[in-house]
Amino acid sequence: MLYLVLGLVVFLGTHSLRVSGDARRDALRERLGEGRFKVVYSLLSGAGLFLVIYGFGLARETPEVLWTPPAGMRHLTFLLTLIAMVLLVATYVPRNSIRARLRHPMVLSVKVWALAHLVANGTLAHLVLFGGFLLWSVLVFRASRKRDRALDIEYTAGALVPTAITAGLGLLLWLLTLGWLHGMVIGVRLMG
Fold first, then answer.
1. In the chain, what are the domain boundaries?
2. Is the pLDDT of residue 132 over 90?
């Protein structure tokens, strides 16, 4: 569990530089220079992600069960992960209404993804991993919305076609994940 916790601290810590405002990140970027800042940020993020994956894998070998989720939670998890995939895609498709309305769909995607996995899994490792990501996403979303208000950032309205493309690509990604990607990457087959 130590590797998992350490990985979460490093990975989520590097991705939390803006939670308390931009001053700390900007000062660090100025001190290191743009190039070095990006290299250090990338190396820390990569190391943290490696530790999360490695630590979670170790923790799954000897699971500490905290609760047994009801069978119906699997259906809720499928629905929530569909929403998370659409939100993820909304981050990248220009001029979609989802991004225009929600403003930070990537962070919301992480929030919904983490919640989906918390309701379907009852081990300590799942609680630490997905609870950590859920807490991080709540704090980052709040900080991002506060920054938007302070800077008076306006998001342009979305259009119907890009929104439909977003929903379609999100559905496709979700289907690929259920049928193939989750089993290949995580080692847990969800369908079939």
1. 1-62, 65-192
2. yes
